[in-house]
Design brief:
Layout (H helix, E strand, L loop, with lengths): L1 E6 L8 E6 L2 E7 L3 H7 L13 H5 L28 E5 L5 H4 L10 E4 L1 H13 L10 E2 L2 E4 L4 E4 L8 E2 L2 E3 L5 H8 L12 E3 L8 E6 L8 E6 L3 E4 L10 H10 L5 E5 L11 H14 L3 E5 L5 H13 L3 E5 H14 L7 E4 L8 H10 L3 E2 L1 H6 L4 E4 L8 H4 L4 E5 L7 H16 L2 E4 L1 E4 L2 E4 L11 H11 L3 E5 L4 H8 L11 E3 L1
Parallel strand pairs: 3-4, 4-5, 5-10, 10-11, 14-15, 15-25, 16-20, 16-21, 17-18, 17-20, 18-19, 21-22
Antiparallel strand pairs: 1-2, 1-26, 2-3, 6-9, 7-8, 12-13, 13-14, 23-24
Bound molecules: zinc ion.
Amino acid sequence: MKITIYDGATTIGGNKIYVEEREKGVFLDFGMNFAKHGQYYDEFLRERSSRGIYDAVQLGIIPRLNIYREDLVPSDLDASAFPRPDVSAVFLSHAHLDHCGCIGYLDEGIAIAATATTLAILKALRDTLKASPGMEAPYFARKYPKDDGRTLEASRSKKEPYACRKMLCTEKISESLLQFLCQSQRTKEIETPECGYVEELGLPFSVEAFELDHSIYGACGFLIEGDIALAYTGDFRMHGRGAEKTRRFLREAKKASVLIIEGTRAGEEEGISEDNVFSNCLAVAEEAKGLVIADFSPRNFERLEMFGEIAKKIGRELVVTAKDAYMLKALECADGTDRMKDKRVYFELKAQRDGWEKYVLELYGDKIADPAEISRAPENFILCFSYYDVKHLLDIMPESGTYIYSSSEAHSEEEQFDFLRLHNWLKLFNFDVYGFRVEGGGVFFEKGFHASGHASSKDLIEAIEIVDPDVIIPVHTERAEWFVEHFGKRVKMIREGDSLVI
Ligand SMILES: [Zn+2]
């Protein structure tokens, strides 16, 4: 078995790991490397989509391989000169962008294999996000060369449906998920996707998915068995409510002699657990008088449901954004659980609505929470808002309230500025703020209101001890040397682009 780490060995995210045996192989994740991306781009300085893969290849955001969609190769790039590994599928561990954000560049013959929940989230992301080539994973508008072929233009013809990538499910796929995957929220139809199961790939090795606990539903680790057995953790933790699932995967992974493991928090102490977060947020929400706002990362559905529990306990209603409601519907298509039944939907004042917003309105028209209703009785609600939503407080005009920041700390200077701006909004409406504070122009984060999606040092050690592999390959980390300090020669540090044959 040969393992090549094209990306994500020494950065947090951007995993692109190629595993092959007898010249047939699969990628484990094909994510966006935000560290690399951020070196060249920001919110306004962006990729030029009319140049297809050109920019991403030249900047090293995707590896120089001949594995990309043909319609994205402009005439001034000779992709045929790059090596062409035989890639049957990309096995996606979970739907965070640093793991899935470059799948859209891949040749359409390369299937996406993932859990039902991950496939549903991926489709919902594509429906609701502004299109960027890397995220056009489940469906895309085929591009055609313009003029001399250096620029490419997407077909706008309604007669030409969106092309679809083959999707393979690691578990039983429901009729409602199949329907959701073909349902278009845009003006063009979506070609009916070919859906099937991983076994159909006819690979010389088997790949099995095991659900595990991370800060997004549907996350899994993979166990690959061929000449040797290899386990890949994706992102995981052991301090959430799904910790037992992680342990089950690790016990299965005992078969593996090679463990590819994430190390986001290598060298970091044990932190706050999801249960701690629950009791701290509950205590604050119980005491709150006016409107309560809960701010957590998009697609952290577990946290969303936790605030739902809190709302129920203290006799309030949880109001989610339209995008959250659409995502929760997607999850329902995958696993049959109606998570919207006791929730309301905030409908922002807007002149034009996208297709997916109209669909939310159709589905949940009777659950709409209008800003005027919240304004009349703010003490009845917990509102799920974050930084980009605070502008809508101008339609609610609360006199005071409580803001619980339940997400990760700012990492860059730019992110710090966002918190200063958020602070101004909250000051304007006299909010008590928990989870962060601004003092002397600096931003400080208060522990206890957020739990990480990643394993602490202690849990990484426990995970490795359970699996007890011969070879440990750290990825998704800036501290690969921490693994060497603890596990010595068993650790193989593979640099980006390098391979290991076992
Ligand atoms: Zn993740």
